[in-house]
Write a structure and sequence with these properties.
By secondary structure, the protein is of the alpha+beta class. The strands form seven sheets. Strands 5-4-8-2-1-10-13-12 form an eight-stranded mixed sheet. It has a five-stranded mixed sheet with strand order 15-16-17-19-18. Strands 3-7-6 form a three-stranded antiparallel sheet, with no helix packed on it. Strand 4 and strand 5 (84-86) form a beta hairpin. The longest helix has 26 residues, at 219-244. The radius of gyration is 28 Å and the shape is globular. Pfam families: Peptidase_M1 (PF01433), Peptidase_M1_N (PF17900).
Length: 831
């Protein structure tokens, strides 16, 4: 430890990697009026370094301590502080500026450096920055924390035939000797993680005040998608302006469709980035795909208010921006999509994914604690994206829609262009309801897990004398979640809805009602937890699609809990239902459950005896389906099983002839999926199939993707071994979505015997993946690796790793426990 570091420890501000909460709190109190003037020279060669200069202006209210500027790599060549050159002093990912060089009031620091950050996502003829949550400090020296918002004046020097997009409008550009210099106007106030720019060869389409940049070349997809994209985007903007009573708060609204983008979208101020595949759909897209597109467009638009206009103060409240983006997106999609069933969509979108984490020993609370920003990426997941909207809908129902909306409007107005915390919002909402929101928030927001409901029915002469409903934490803890839900009493000739207000751990309802033939708990799909099920209920005969969906989900959750429902029995129920179910969103659930049960919870040696019947069921269901969307959904489910030779021959014929079954239209990427599925199944001449599919692909980006996946599709184990070994090198993990797909190929259920040997190293590399990858990559890595294992030997690998690493990063440990929970359940259920 050198003298400077010793002094900083004495002052209570140790120089440590990342951005500690203590450092962030100190800087937020002393630094203001920040402006970054950034100039980047980006050569066409994606491996060549990027040269950069920066002028950083800010005000200091105190110079009692040295200044730490965040920059992850020590590539600074020149530093000038308030007109005087100083030697760069770099410690633990920070440029250190001594107090003697600073002044109370306005300061200016000029910097020159190079950057080769992976967060610049450089490709052959395009690049884009993605800096959430703490990646801004990998690209330029900055105060990388969300509550130090700044203005940016950006200049980009790029190849002359490239487009350039930033947070602010283009001011002007000049071309000189093959280089285009693009200058942008000064931006709005932006947190560092929301700063972004994109440059490269893109097509530009404009409608009204919205600009869309893309690289899509499929004319059919463009024809089917461009108008809906603009229409949904415009409707989403109008909805948000009306709901919040605040006009769009930034200087411009651009969208950039990025091939193989890491997320569905990212809400950069005025320059939203989307995954291209999520936007550009063909005319036969399933309803699930259409809903997903509407959702992601609405989600990122809502972020412009929730997240961009008002930003969390620290990433322990990152869930706030995500919950409101999803919460608003659900409402917006109800407007932008015709004949949309909001309640059904909300149920099928959020509950299975929230349960998928909350039932595990690695479950986390919605609001988590964060000591250092370098760990912020591990806070993202299905709890904040899917449990939080469920919580927020319960809160809206508790308060009433009007009071809830008025509270949100006040929140946005009070903290506009600034930062706020969850307690700040709770205090505003608490004033609009007699309910004690602090107590309500304790179990919903600050604790992990879900309730398990039990009931006791007493009757006399066909009348209910008592129906007692109780809840307890699924972990056995005596907790209860205040919530509303409904039950359906099903009689021979009618259905009656019974409201339930769980304002205490045990309540009694429905006294005096006639005893029903069947009780369906959570019939409206608003309650949260593990509910009792009647395994003999004829679910498909229930008219309400929401009640059917809730019943399907309850059955699956009870099966996982080992509550009187075996995988084989549930598989039979789901197979019977999929032949009669008409609602596409419900068919999607049933298809997912067939796939999950067959590959995850049925022993490998039993699958061949079941495959032909399941394939036949799915094919029949596809032929009976009334719409092209549902036919396509069911054909996809059929190809997902395709274990028998007959099924594989059918899939091959569709691929070979480039013609789907009657009523099913397939796009280029779907034919690619058929080819890769055949390769994994070691179909005859699979390599020739892959080579021909590669030749068929016209889009250069999609061609590059399949070329990357080739090694993972090989049935030569040595080739797969070499590919897996190559992933230890960070450079070979640059295209994270490609890597996740490749891992899924290698750990397909049909290959687990050959791939189990990869598990120890997959866990060993996880910490490095978390340090170097984007926020969802550790989760994607674990999911692709462990999704289908069901043997005690595989479970033992995970248990051994955790036992041998007792001090492992607790947030990464939680991810491991979340993503391997199904494996442990499979071992128990199969045993």
């Amino acid at each position: 430890m050198n003298i400077l570091t010793t002094v900083l420890f004495a002052l209570g501000l140790p120089v440590q990697p990342g951005v500690s909460a203590k450092l962030a709190e100190h800087r937020a109190k002393t630094i203001s009026n920040i402006h970054y003037a950034l100039n980047f020279t980006i050569p066409a060669d994606q491996k060549a370094p990027v040269l950069a200069t920066e002028v950083l202006d800010f005000k200091l209210s105190s110079i009692a301590q040295t200044l730490q500027i965040d920059f992850k790599t020590n590539t600074i060549t020149q530093v000038n502080v308030n007109g005087k050159a100083i030697k760069p002093n770099f410690i633990n990912e920070h440029l250190i500026i001594g107090a003697k060089s600073l002044i109370r009031g306005s300061n200016r620091i000029k910097l020159s450096y190079t950057t080769a950050s992976s967060s610049m996502n450089r490709n052959r003829d395009y690049m884009y920055t993605l800096l959430v949550p703490d990646r801004a400090r990998t690209v330029f020296p900055c105060f990388d924390q969300p509550d130090l918002k700044a203005m940016y004046t950006l200049t980009l020097n790029v190849p002359k035939d490239w487009q350039a997009v930033g947070n602010a409008p283009v001011k002007d550009f000049v071309v000189n000797k093959g280089v285009k210099t693009v200058r942008f106007t000064r931006s709005d106030l932006v947190s560092t993680y929301l700063f972004s720019f994109v440059a490269g060869k893109f097509y530009k389409v404009s409608k009204g005040n919205i600009n869309l940049y893309h690289r899509e070349t499929d004319t059919a997809k463009l024809k089917a998608s461009i108008d809906p994209i603009f229409d949904i985007q415009a409707d989403a903007l109008k909805f948000m302006e009306d709901y919040t009573a605040i006009k769009y708060p930034f200087k411009k609204f651009d969208c950039i469709a990025i091939p193989d983008f890491q997320y569905g979208g990212m809400e950069h101020v005025g320059a939203i980035q989307y995954k291209a595949a999520a936007l550009f759909l063909d005319a036969s897209a399933t309803r699930d795909q259409l809903i997903a597109r509407a959702n992601v467009l609405a989600h990122e638009t809502a972020h412009q208010w929730f997240g961009d206009l008002v930003t969390m103060r620290w990433f322990n409240d990152v869930w706030m921006k995500e919950v409101f983006a999803n919460f608003m997106a659900d409402r917006i999609s109800n407007i932008t999509l015709k004949d949309n069933n909001y309640t059904l969509k909300f149920l099928t979108d959020h509950y299975p994914l929230a349960y998928g984490v909350d039932r595990t020993p690695g479950a986390n609370a919605i609001r988590q604690q964060l000591g250092n920003l370098q760990d912020a990426g591990s806070m993202y997941g299905n709890i904040i994206y899917h449990k939080a909207p469920i919580m927020m809908r319960q809160l809206e129902r508790l308060m009433g829609e009007k009071a809830f909306q008025e509270g949100l409007r006040q929140y946005l107005k009070r903290y506009a262009y600034g930062n706020a915390t969850w307690p700040d919002l709770i205090s505003i909402l608490d004033a609009r309801t007699p309910v004690d929101l602090l107590a309500w928030n304790k179990v919903w927001g600050n604790e992990a897990g879900r309730p398990k409901f039990t009931h006791q029915l007493k009757t006399d002469n066909g009348k209910i004398t008592a129906l007692m409903i109780s809840q307890l934490g699924e972990d056995g803890n005596k907790r209860f979640w205040p919530q509303y839900f409904e039950m359906a009493f099903i009689y021979n000739d009618h259905v009656e809805t019974i409201p339930v207000n769980m304002k205490q751990a045990t309540i009694t309802v429905a006294v005096g009602k006639a005893k029903p033939d069947v009780i369906i708990f959570n019939s409206s799909g608003e309650g949260y937890g593990v509910f009792p099920v009647d395994v003999n209920a004829e679910i498909i005969s229930i008219k309400d699609p929401v009640t059917r969906a809730s019943a399907y989900i309850n059955l699956y959750e009870n099966m996982l809990s080992g509550q009187g429902m075996t995988p084989q029995r549930l598989l039979n129920i789901v197979r019977a239902a999929i032949l009669k179910e008409k609602e596409e969103l419900n068919l999607n659930i049933l298809a997912d459950y067939i796939n999950a049960i067959f590959w995850r919870f049925i022993p490998a040696d039993k699958r061949p005896g079941l495959a032909a019947d399941i394939e036949s069921t799915l094919w029949q269901a596809m032929e009976r389906a009334g719409t092209a969307n549902t036919k396509k959904l069911l054909f996809k489910a059929y190809t997902g099983i395709a274990l028998s030779k007959g099924a594989q021959d059918k899939v091959y014929q569709v691929w070979r002839d480039k013609r789907g079954p009657a009523g099913v239209t397939l796009a280029e990427d779907e034919y690619t999926s058929l080819a890769t599925g055949l390769a994994i199944r070691n179909y005859t001449n699979y390599q020739d199939i892959l080579n021909e599919q590669l030749a068929r692909i016209q889009n250069a980006d999609r061609k590059d993707r399949l070329q990357f996946l080739m090694a993972s599709l090989s049935n030569d184990v040595a080739v797969r071994d070499a590919f897996f070994a190559s992933l230890k090198d960070r450079a070979n993990r640059a295209k994270e979505s490609w890597v996740a797909t490749a891992l899924g190929n290698m750990h397909h259920p049909l290959r687990l015997a050959q791939s189990e040997k990869y598990l120890p190293e997959s866990l060993d590399w996880l910490a490095d993946i978390q340090r170097t990858g984007d926020i969802f990559f550790p989760q994607a890595w674990l999911q692709a690796t462990f999704a289908w294992y069901q043997t005690p030997a595989a479970a033992a690998v995970v248990s051994s790793f955790l036992n041998n690493n007792p001090n492992y990063n607790p947030k990464l440990k939680a991810k491991i426990l979340q993503l391997t929970d199904n494996m442990y359940r499979a071992v128990r259920l199969i045993k």
